[in-house]
Give the backbone structure.
Amino acid sequence: MSHPDDAPRVDAALLDERAEDLYEDAPCGYVSTLPDGTIVRVNRTLLEWVGSSRESILSTKIQALLTIGSRIYYETHYAPLLRMQGFVNEIAFDLVSRDGRILPVLLNARERRDRDESPLFNRITLFDATDRRRYERELLLARRKAEQAAKDKAALLAMLSHDIRNPLNALMGVVQMLEGGELSEQQRRLVRLLKSSSDNMLALLTHVLELSKAESSGFALVETPFALSDIVDDVISTFQTTARGKGVMLRSSVDARVPPFVIGDPVAIRQVLTNLVGNAIKFTDRGSVELTVVARELATDAVTLAFAVADTGIGMAPDVLDRIFNEFTQASYETAMRFGGSGLGLAITRKLLALYGTAVNVKSAPGEGSTFSFDLRLPVPPQSSVVEPR
Amino acid sequence: MDIIRRNNVHTFGDGGGAPIVFAHGFGCDQNMWRFVAPAFAAAHRVVLFDHVGAGQSDSSAYDRRKYATLDGYATDVLEICHALELSRVILVGHSVSAMIGVLAAKREPGLFTALVLVGPSPRYINDDGYHGGFSTQDIEGLLTSLDSNYLGWSSTMAPVIMGNADRPELGAELTNSFCRTDPEIAAHFARVTFFSDNRRDLAAVRTPVLVLQCADDVIAPQAVGEYVHAQMPASRLVMMKATGHCPNLSAPQETIEAIQTFIRSLP
């Protein structure tokens, strides 16, 4: 509660509170410069920050208060931007005080112009950003460390997978030899189990290797002419036996307008189609799986192809759809137990297609099957440059 | 590959004079020619573009291997000239684009009538007997400064982070509308620019050259402008009254007049 007698005293104090003091002692630095950076006015706060007297700083340039790295940024970014748009906000600079201390600041500036829009001077406000810059650096550092750790882990995984594959190949050779020998019914059952387990293990390892390859920064898609229909035929024939064994009809159709040759990475595209068709068959027990390719847009030098793999299998609920492209994720634990597999196929598919700047679209409902589709724009070689393989 | 779209190429003007191509430097985009380029439209066909990764260029065309040296950018300049079917080109290159212009003219001398080098530097880092103006440590300091401005909280120059989609609370007033650039590309471009050494390329260019040297230019000090002039056989050095590194923005009239005088003097 203020006493009535205080009122006149407050007024007197306010009269004493001059705008000049507000300017000089503000909790931020104020400086006004000519368009070339020459300091014409500066407040006490900024003088204290840089440890200079007013006399020594007036008529020098604000650039001289910056570290050299900041000075380059000033000339290449700040000055052009300020001249073009008349203001800049929150540019990070480092001030250097007379005794060599570095003070991180955030700088805002407004350009004052005359009637002809010519620049007169710049009004600049500086905020102490020491704490913020420290958090920022720590965050950036933490991010870089995390990225490096992820890379190291992927490299380790790839190396391990590679090393495990060698003894596994030996194991599989032995199983094959055993199969050819004379075995009792019991032994034959055990060898079959051994074979299917080692087959699964090899598939898993191959997937891990493919994924780490697609993830490595050095991975680049090959660009070579190839016949798309050959790849489609290959993929279908790879799975035909499995499909027939399950009583599932597997077929393909390639739009007649699809050019005989396109330019792309045949290995990557085959991998994507293999993953999608393989998945479709795995999750379909009756009905059909169909791979279709349609030429959506046809130009002389490029074609946009719409690929789709449609099945009449078990389908998925909407909440499952969000997760299936993650690594090591299957729709559920039960799915993994029942259908097997690494859960890496769709993650690899997604990564490979991302290299082409495209993504898989999924339509699915439980019990009604799924359709996985994606578009791919590929260059078409000039007619004469491709020799038809005989 | 659509070169016009890749480099966001714009042309205007319909004069009978030689076509004039303006190439922007590190840190900005074609906007930085806005006070200079229109003055040439009456007499020339004017061509503006953004380097890949800057302004409105197609960042997806960025290939770290191609742009690991300034030669990758020179290739783009040549491709732009060919895509527009230009000949007798006058190339005006600011800052790092001055050297990109030198590399382009070295590769296809017949394409260019003249080069205008605004604040050129063939090497930014000091070397035995050569004063470029910076130490390696200085350039590392710039890269840290870029980190703060591109990836840090302020991220003034980075629409990727600063874009309205992510931070709708920031109104249009707070966002910078010029010279936007992809942060990763900018950091790489900075490295490629400031660690480049093109001193040996200068003497190979026989095209008439105008070197525009500003007073008090911290990026390309006067000694560097004099060095470029001394190394290039057909060059002329003009000392400008303008200070700083961007006379095209700070002293557009002086810049225009210097270029026009030079063009008039060409055979």
